Amino acid sequence: MSAYDEARTIEDVARRELLAWLMKTCQNVEDTAHSEFLQKTCGDWIITKLSQQYGVELKAEAKFTGNLFLETWSNLPRRTLGWMYTSQADWLFYFFADTKELFVIDFPALWQWAFGVGEKDGAIYRYAEKTQNRYNQINLTRG
After folding, report:
1. How many degrees, rounded to 5, is the angle at CA 112 between CA 7 and CA 76?
2. Backbone φ and ψ of 119, nearest 5°
3. Checking phi first, is residue 79 left (phi over 0); if not, alpha (psi -120 to 50) or beta?
4. DSSP H or E stretch at residue 24
5. Which of 75, 92, 98, 119 is disulfide-compatible with 105, CB 3.0–4.6 A?
């Protein structure tokens, strides 16, 4: 199984776990998998709550580590920015399959924390950028 397929399997577990909850708590849930444009801008789902639409970016990991991997580079040698820069989602859902814990993070607030506001420096720069090494893959992913 490729690294991409392994990561997709974990994300599929998260999707199954969360979809039933979203269907109960939202007026509508639209999966964006059919559209690369929607996937890159809105995230994995567009949900409707109280007649307002929100983009949801889903990230999932097999095991809880106490850390979140905030992808800054999808493929560094090709200068492909990661989802921390490219996603325009409203919410980041970060799911850990082993503990079934879901962290729901306001994405605009995360961007402000990470990259700063105005003259205020972002907090992401306090942490060393690390190469993703959990999966053996072709692209060099950093965050």
Report:
1. 45
2. -85, -10
3. left
4. helix 3-25
5. 92
3-state secondary structure 86-100: HCCCCEEEEEECCCC
Measured torsion, CA atoms of residues 30, 62, 128, 142, in degrees rounded to the nearest 10: -60
pLDDT digits (tens, 9 = 90+) for 89-130: 999 999 999 999 999 999 999 999 999 998 889 999 899 888
Instruction: Round to whole Å and give the CA distance between 138 and 76.
Output: 11
Residue 103: name the closest of 43, 58, 62 by CA: 58
pLDDT at residue 2 tops 80: no
> Which residues touch 7 (CB under 8 Å, ≥6 apart)?
135
CA distance 143 to 141: 7
Distance CA 52, CA 133 (A): 38
Contacts of 8 (CB under 8 A, 6+ apart): none
Which residues fall within 8 angstroms of residue 89, CB to CB, at 6 or more apart?
A: 41, 42, 43, 54, 55, 56, 57, 107
